[in-house]
Model the fold of this input.
Amino acid sequence: MNQQYPSALLEKAVSEFAKLPGIGRKTAMRLVLHLLRQDTAMVESFGQSLITLKHEVKYCRVCHNISDTDICQLCASPSRDKSTICVVENIRDVMAVENTQQYRGVYHVLGGVISPMDGIGPNDLQIESLVKRVEAGGIDEIILALSPTMEGDTTNFYIYRKLAHTGVALTVIARGISVGDELEYTDEVTLGRSIMARVPFK
Done:
C-alpha cells in the first residue's frame, strides 16, 4: 500500500532524496523531516552548496580527479612523484589511497571499469588518455589499483595490453584485499600494505 503524505511538497522532497544510492524512502523521510526542523538559512546553504558543486566543479585535465581548478592539487604538487601513476576506478578510490598516507605518486581516474553487462566498454573510460600520458614519456611505473573483481581484472588486462608497447612497468596492488571487495570499503592499513607490496602485473 502506498504511503499517504500530508503534503505533496513533502512527498516530492522524499522522492528526490530516495533517488540517492543507498537511501530508501524511510531514510529519505527522516532526512527531509530533519531539514524541515532546521533554520531556513541552513537549508538554503545546504541546497546552494549542491548547486554550486554541480555548476562549478571541474575535473583535472591530467588525471580526471575532481578539482576546483583545471589541474588538481595532487598533479600540481611538486612533492608528488610524477613518474608513478596509480590507476583507480573512481574519485572515492583516490581518497581511500590518500588516506593510507603510503603513496606519493600521482593518479589516473578511469571513471569506472569495463563491464559489458552494464554497457560499459573501454571507450566509456579514461583509458586512451592514460595511454597518451604514458606515451608522452617520464612514466616509470603504472600501479593498477582497481577493485579485485572480475570487471576490475578485465580492465587491468585491457590496460596491460594497451600499454604493452610502451615498456613501462605495470604492477598490481597485492591481494591483501579480498577478491570481490570494493576498494573504498577496505581499511587503510590493509590498503596501505597492498599499495606498498604491489607486484608485477602478468
